[in-house]
Amino acid sequence: MVADDPIQFLRLSKEDLRASLNKLKEDLQARSPEDIAQKTGSELKTTGEATELILYCFSKNFTITLPEFSVRDAQGRDADLLYSGFIIHYLATADGTPSPGKWVSLREIPGGTFYADAFQGYTGDVLVRTFGGEEDQLIQACRENKGEEIDLGDFGYSFQLLPRVKLGLVYWRGDEEFSPSARILFDASSPHYLPCDALAVMGAQLTRDLCLAR
Length: 214
Hints:
- This protein has 214 residues and is of the alpha+beta class.
- The protein folds into 2 domains: 6-93, no CATH class; 103-212, TATA-Binding Protein (2-Layer Sandwich).
- Helices cover 38% and strands 24% of the residues.
- The strands form 2 sheets. A 5-stranded antiparallel sheet has the order 5-9-8-7-6. Strands 1-2-3-4 form a 4-stranded antiparallel sheet, covered by helices on one side.
């Protein structure tokens, strides 16, 4: 079962996370909007005195108002802490590194060894328990979450969760000798866009969204 509040995987209380985001916002205020937009692949929009960045996260559109770096959803409401956390960390970390076209596990990401076993437990293992024997439902859930097919395992899908952050799912159906297995993967450029713990939370949230689509 995926935790109801994936923020706990950041190992921060919500209060500590807010304090961390405020510090990141202060750092972002020292940079030019043009630099941030270029490195994150977000749209820079200036209307009168208002300057905004527009980007999507988990297929939802968000607007970031500068210089406060307040995050609002498509309805103009303050974004919840989970999505604000993803977006502010992304804006602060992104350095524009291009994708090498390679998938890696969390263990291969700097700092990922610490999280790897637990991460597999609340992502790939959860998907197997939820969809094992009903893989067609997992395929449908991937499509409903805008996944695109990739040539990995018995089947695989990629998910563009931020303009330059892509996660992958690879699934093996298993046979008489091996049990079914699933794994969440990351584009090898991901550490240039989010810290390891935030990537782990993204994987947890993707898993949750797929399970909810069942």
